[in-house]
Amino acid sequence: MDFTSDNAAALAPEVMLGLQAANAGTASGYGNDDLTKRVETAFSDLFGREVGVFLVSTGGAANGLALSALTPSWGAILCHREAHVMVDEAAGVEFFLGGGRLVGLSGIGAKVTPSSVEAGLAAMDGRVPHQIPARTLSLTQATEYGRVYSADEIATLCETAKRHGLKVHMDGARFANAVAATGAEPADLTWRAGVDALSFGFTKNGALCAEAVIAFDLALNEELTYRRKRSGHLWSKHRFLSAQVLAMLEGNAWLKHAGHANRMAALLAEALSENNGAELVFPPDANEIFCRLTPDLDVQLRAAGCHYYDWPGDPETGAGDPTKGQVNRFVTSFATTEADIAAVRAALVTRATHSAAAG
Amino acid sequence: MDFTSDNAAALAPEVMLGLQAANAGTASGYGNDDLTKRVETAFSDLFGREVGVFLVSTGGAANGLALSALTPSWGAILCHREAHVMVDEAAGVEFFLGGGRLVGLSGIGAKVTPSSVEAGLAAMDGRVPHQIPARTLSLTQATEYGRVYSADEIATLCETAKRHGLKVHMDGARFANAVAATGAEPADLTWRAGVDALSFGFTKNGALCAEAVIAFDLALNEELTYRRKRSGHLWSKHRFLSAQVLAMLEGNAWLKHAGHANRMAALLAEALSENNGAELVFPPDANEIFCRLTPDLDVQLRAAGCHYYDWPGDPETGAGDPTKGQVNRFVTSFATTEADIAAVRAALVTRATHSAAAG
Amino acid sequence: MDFTSDNAAALAPEVMLGLQAANAGTASGYGNDDLTKRVETAFSDLFGREVGVFLVSTGGAANGLALSALTPSWGAILCHREAHVMVDEAAGVEFFLGGGRLVGLSGIGAKVTPSSVEAGLAAMDGRVPHQIPARTLSLTQATEYGRVYSADEIATLCETAKRHGLKVHMDGARFANAVAATGAEPADLTWRAGVDALSFGFTKNGALCAEAVIAFDLALNEELTYRRKRSGHLWSKHRFLSAQVLAMLEGNAWLKHAGHANRMAALLAEALSENNGAELVFPPDANEIFCRLTPDLDVQLRAAGCHYYDWPGDPETGAGDPTKGQVNRFVTSFATTEADIAAVRAALVTRATHSAAAG
Amino acid sequence: MDFTSDNAAALAPEVMLGLQAANAGTASGYGNDDLTKRVETAFSDLFGREVGVFLVSTGGAANGLALSALTPSWGAILCHREAHVMVDEAAGVEFFLGGGRLVGLSGIGAKVTPSSVEAGLAAMDGRVPHQIPARTLSLTQATEYGRVYSADEIATLCETAKRHGLKVHMDGARFANAVAATGAEPADLTWRAGVDALSFGFTKNGALCAEAVIAFDLALNEELTYRRKRSGHLWSKHRFLSAQVLAMLEGNAWLKHAGHANRMAALLAEALSENNGAELVFPPDANEIFCRLTPDLDVQLRAAGCHYYDWPGDPETGAGDPTKGQVNRFVTSFATTEADIAAVRAALVTRATHSAAAG
User: Fold this and answer.
1) How confident is the model at residue A355 (pLDDT cuts 50, 70, 90)?
2) Chain A residue closest to B21 (CA)?
3) What confidence tens digit (pLDDT) does each residue in D209-252 have?
4) Does residue B358 register a pLDDT over 70?
5) Contact yes or no for A226 and D130 at CB 8 A
6) Which contiguous run of DSSP H or E holds residue C311?
7) What is the dihedral of CA A207, A211, A217, A218, to 10 degrees?
8) CA-CA distance, C14 to B25, in Å (whole number)?
9) Taking a C-beta distance cutoff of 8 angstroms, is the pair C228, C65 a contact?
10) If DSSP states are collapsed to H, E and C, what string results for D295-314?
11) Are C60 and C157 within 8 A, CB to CB?
């Protein structure tokens, strides 16, 4: 049972089938192929409007490209201080910008709020030109702590952002999980709420290596065209990038897999927390669980072959007061099975039995 | 018959098998997996020494990373003025450098020579600090016109470069074709000759999307580690990048496929040029043919379903005097078949017959 | 009485005389002149060893150049979270780096300590390559709150930094004030303690526009040569930059002026705080005073034509608990006179009298 | 007699007087002072419309800031291949852009023409996205070979540029000389003709260190505000930058000095070329003379204490066929005197006499 990350999984079956189907004959390179055209159409259909589509192979690339297209190189980007762009991309956004700066916001469960946005803006103090101005707000959906923004929350955040002249980017590495969790229309979680560009992730959801930058502001298309190419993110055999995404979009495999991962997370959270087994740090909206295992439960689960990460506690983000014990992160994916959950449950039962016997 | 580019082909069978084999279970992300370790070992074996290995998905990424690791951001890079980094990567190298400049050298068939390097250096005139200093020489092997450098030629170029304090990079998008063409050891074409870093391409040779930056100067490893990550070129499901390369390296599939492409090019060149059919602009050392078709032959071949590019003539690089007629580029790949060549030949025979009948 | 900033002052008399003396005849541009050679010699004499000298016209330029020469473009720089490079240079360091990131440290009075450096490093967690590595520590001497590091404190901080592989930069916009305050040798406050590069400011101390990047690590000279030129910071009529600095260095005018500013600050602090007039937030080591005026005293002083800034309180840096009242900053300079202090004192006496009368 | 460069001269008397007048009392920093407001008004008056004004201390800074504000970081800038930005600024423009590329155009006397612009665009071939698109045309007025564009020529070039979607920048390091030479209105040489931003130089014309970026497109103001600050080009004691420019603008000192320099060049050209003394390579429109001295005349002049540069010949730009002998550059300035010309003439007479005697 590997719950370390959803990127530890292999490929969703549709993706491998899609790659195999694409693996015939010749095709023009660099996106001038039929599959790519179909992907563009599929995204426009999904979002109910024309969108710009730029496929790349990593989330870091998607975020860096989207944010640098939205933000002047001398501008600041607001994001949660535990956002992936802040803590996990090796200052990639700053590289794509050629400077700039990320400004960390607070918020429980890595969710920013209108008041944390306002507080972040106020703290920048705006002494022109000594401080760079905030230009973009980046939201992660689902968040780095597995929380989900509702369409209304996003709309309110976008309203706050626009009032201050900010563009809005959404890091949707787990956008599918958020759509599955909310049941909302993709359009309502993005452009209808005011999002200007979305990094729509497929890799964690079963693709081999596919993320889409979706431009709702079509004026970004030219920026993204040249920025993708010059950063080495335009594939020559682009059809194989499109094939992955198309396989996920057709028949709504993306939503099916994300929904499955979310359900597995709910079951896992239940299994972990029942019988006072573990304290959940956050309600698992999507496919990530943050909880506090007792030391003996931790030993028991690891002994049973269960893999997951210790996570740094952080009272300010609600990620756990380190004095209350170690926080652990479990991530489920399309590949997590009910058997995996049952195995966890078995380990827990063992423990309960063992504890009862010891008691 | 698609001779437009070797990147128009699909996947070599070994690559798809490798992907399928890797598609099971979970694995740690970001290169912390067994396949990646095996790739690193395989490259060290291939080059007969320890090397740094950094897999990425495009040649532009490999070149940008390698060149920015080798060159200070205020330095100049010498390359042939028709080098891929100069004309086909949307100023990606300058982006990775955060400035810098490419300086174009002359040379027939996109091959630079010691004297063209010396001439390029002399033209820079070196007024410190008004002109940035040359720091790196980038060679393309095989060149953009399908020519190949011998191990001796590379050694001489490296000697010239080192004498002027330049590092040497090799853009080996078609390195496999060059190895197959020369029969030389990979080591003799690279580090033993003085090359500091190599972009070793697999995509054009049958991979889905795999290029390796090979660092012979191990001091580059740290630079490349962080530069790859921050530019969004480190895959999370890295095992699927390693699987492609491993499939090519094991059993020398890379060399077999490149040799096949070269042989197909030789046959195609013969087919095109026999009976005064087409004038070869360059001898086809590797898998690219540049020739001048007569207008009626051009029509005939295209009518027969043969695809290839018109190419800009350029007398200075020997790529053809435009006044002498249109130059055409044909590229063969691992996927080119003898049947493809036969089909071309058939079209030519038709023409010959037709010409004879008309004559 | 203008206490808003030491950069509100005009020129020290030596500087204007120096400019006038330099204003004759012709001279080679770009630093190839006699005055510049003399400046280089004067700095080497001052520091008791050979140093690299790069004059520029702003502190932001000096810091950006020094830090980008010391730090790889993918590295992080540790500095106090209220350091000038962090809050007052519009993300200039990130621009000069082409990415990178500043990491804010805590510390009372904007002084970092070995433990705040250790805490900053620990918070970065060092997951390679997801987080960029710390590479440089930047200290401000005197600090943004007018505190001064002793030679021993700097040596200890450098020892901590070196143990973690960090280079050390000193932002010495008010280095002269720190030297005057400590009575230490410039060498003991810098290279002997382990500092690799210094931004040595002259503008706040009476120059028109002159800051020197001093490279103690001579390997930085080439980096700085090209970085200064390409960023537009190499003057053509460079002799007029050298003339300013030479006028300050010769006869130790720099030290005399800084000592005077410090003494004026001590007198001003005394005047402000006597009779319970104002609470000093920090002891004024150098030429800046942070204090908390009572509202009526504030009114009184401003009515008397005294100019100074309200300053944001920040309990975490000891800059004042906002709930305890507004903090004010007073800065003295070479141009502050005893008459200015007397005028402040007169306003205070007025107040005292007035208060007594009202009492 | 120093004819090496106009930046070898000291300060025009008005500039020193302006600095002395500004050297009193305190003033707000960073351009929030009265002199700066007066400079802004003076430029608006000069150009007959509102303009953005951004003073900096070098021409490289002015060009880098203006071009990076006009051009996306992924765009190309067309300029003459001997333009200062191309050959003398250490790839500063690329640094300010964070990538991008300069594309060199041909043209006699470093003057580009509509046809050289068209040829440059045609050579880029525009394969999207493999080549970066041209976005800006940079013209130097007066050119690096001392030639001047008429208002009509600029209008025609701007029309060509706009037709291709290019912005237009003017490097006016010697703009004053061009205005003096043409007698045209500054407005007619710039915004009325279609120029979007101008680097207006004062240093070569007698300032200590002052160049103005003039934004005719007011939308550039925000870009320039932040770009100037973050690159370290916003002075704290900004009044001393404004004082220089104001001294030059008031009473039209800038035009008087440039006109003088031009007249001195005309006289010098006459002196050099009479009696078959030297062959002029270009007619000296402004204050630079390029000529070919006979070897003995060269010796004679240098022996008489005359300083000037040998210049690389370049038949393609008309800068001289190296086979026809060494080209020399003479530059006059506001400080050149009729006595200097007389001294040159005396050396020539000596030669003529000597030659006659020898004959």
Assistant:
1) low
2) A10
3) 999 999 999 999 999 999 999 999 999 999 999 999 999 999 99
4) no
5) no
6) strand C309-311
7) -80
8) 76
9) yes
10) HHHHHHHHHCCCECEEECCC
11) no
- Which residue carries 């200890």 as its tokens? C156
The first and second tokens of residue A217, run together, are 């502001």
Tokens matching residue B32: 């912390």
Length of chain A: 359
Q: Which residues neighbour B26 within 8 Å (Cβ) at sequence distance 6 or greater? A: A2, A4, A8, A9, A10, A335
Length of chain B measured in residues = 359
Task: List the one residue out of D177, D234, D8 whose CA is nearest residue C240.
Answer: D8
Interchain pair A99, D99: CB under 8 A: no
Distances (CA, A) of C97 to A66, A97, B67, C101, D102: 21, 11, 17, 9, 21
Residues of B in contact with A232 (CB under 8 A): 56, 58-65, 89, 92, 96, 231, 233
In this structure, are residues C11 and C314 in contact, taking their beta carbons and an 8 Å threshold? Answer: no
Per DSSP, the three-state class of B274 is: helix
Q: What is the pLDDT of residues B127-174, one digit of tens each?
A: 999 999 999 999 999 999 999 999 999 999 999 999 999 999 999 999
**Residue D219: Cβ-neighbour burial (10 angstroms; 0-12, 13-18, 19+):** exposed
D chain contacts of residue B95, beta-carbon cutoff 8 Å? 73-74, 98-99
Token pair 């000038």: residue: C84
Distance of CA B99 to the CA centre of its chain: 24
- Contacts made by residues C48-53, CB under 8 angstroms, sequence distance 24+: C48/C185, C48/C187, C49/C187, C49/C191, C49/C216, C50/C218, C51/C191, C51/C214, C51/C215, C51/C216, C51/C218, C52/C213, C52/C214, C52/C215, C52/C216, C52/C218, C52/C220, C52/C221, C52/C224, C53/C212, C53/C213, C53/C214, C53/C215
pLDDT class for D354, splitting at 50, 70, 90?
Answer: low
Token pair recorded at residue A180: 């599955």
Residues 6+ apart with CB under 8 A from A358: none
Pairing of strands C76-80, C101-105: parallel
DSSP secondary structure of B192-214: TTT--EEEEE-TTTT-SS-EEEE
Tell me which chains share at least 3 CB pairs under 8 Å with chain B.
A, C, D
Q: What is the DSSP letter of B53?
A: E
Burial B2-24, CB ≥16 within 10 A → b, else e? bbbbbbbbbbbebbbebbeebbe
Residue D249 contacts residue D225 (beta carbons within 8 Å): no
Q: Which residues of D touch B (CB under 8 A)?
A: 73-74, 76, 87-91, 94-95, 97-102, 125, 127, 129-132, 312
Burial class (CB in 10 A: 0-12, 13-18, 19+), C219: exposed
Distance between CA atoms of residues B313 and B291, nearest Å:
10
- In degrees and rounded to multiples of 5, residue A189 shows phi and psi of -85, -5
* pTM, rounded to two decimals: 0.97
How many Å apart are CA D235 and CA D228, to the nearest integer?
10
Helix (H) / strand (E) containing D252: none
Cα end-to-end span (Å), chain D? 29
ipTM, two decimals: 0.96
Q: Which residue has the tokens 């007073």?
A: C330
Split at pLDDT 50, 70, 90, the class of C275 is: confident
Single-letter residue type at A25: G
Asked if residue D142 has a cis previous peptide bond (ω within 30° of 0), the answer is: yes
* Residue A5 near residue A173 (C-beta atoms within 8 A): no
CA–CA dist A280, B230 (Å, integer): 33
Query: What pLDDT does residue C12 have?
Result: 98
Dihedrals φ, ψ of C74, to 5°? -105, 15
- At position D89, the amino acid (one-letter code) is E
* Contact (Cβ atoms closer than 8 angstroms) between residue D313 and residue D320: yes
The amino acid sitting at B220 is L
